[in-house]
Amino acid sequence: MPLNRDFIGRSYPASAPYEVGREKIREFATAIGDANPAYVDADAARALGHPDVIAPPTFLTVLTFRFFDESSIVDPGLGLEYSRVVHGEQRFVHHRPVRAGDRLAVTSRVADIRDAGRNELLTTQSEVTTVDSERVATVYNTLVSRGTAASAAQQEA
Amino acid sequence: MAAAVRYADVEVGTEVPAVDFAVQRVNLVRYCGASGDFNTIHWNERFATSVGLPNVIAHGMYTMAEAARVVTDWVGDPGAVVEYGVRFSSPVVVPDDGVGATLTVSGRVEEKLADNRVVVGLTATSGDAKVFSGARAVVQLA
Prior knowledge:
The complex is a heterodimer of chains A (about 160) and B (about 140). With about 160 residues, chain A is α+β, with helices and mostly antiparallel strands.
């Protein structure tokens, strides 16, 4: 069953801000085994020109799961079956590093749905700003919906 | 920001030192907790094999985070990574055999951009599998 292309362009703002905690950054850095002092030592971060400890380059993935239940991909109208999904692409554009104390707002938009052979590719674009509207990052995420392209359904019919 | 690498000192072709990362189940469990991604394929072998996977697989985002370290360790300041993207091609399979998997990541400067920025292309392999079909970071150098 192909994904519902009427969803292209729909936006999903997160209901609440995400506050970036210094211990959450430490937990994430520990989990990825990264001992860079800029993640845990404010003085080390300041020596690099940052006002406080900063988060690793892929940290914003945490927001994806924090607001998972409010995203397009769990909207039943889209027709995405989670068991068919694999992660295709991920890209972060950092307008500035994420740092402890940031209060982040995120709005995700279904940027594109298209066929790729028998599969479909669903791309979301998330704008991450502070609650004061300072741009922090743009995050692109592409999920592969295996075997749901219209052409795949025709072959099976 | 304060990158430890100067733009003037790198050329297209400059190698970023390769790193081997050991990946064991405990790493995936920790990453589940830290990231919030508790997808069962990342911690339950019975479930992973029931959906056709060879075994438990690492989160794509975990492998992406490990690969980033090759760049951030090179440049010193993680805040110098202004853009980072990967295309996932093969999962890293992590058996519960006391050894786990090894993820090998290397990098190379592919392009010099304006404003002291460079493009670093990354290659990641685990066994015979090519983990990314494309991976690049744009890095702000000094």
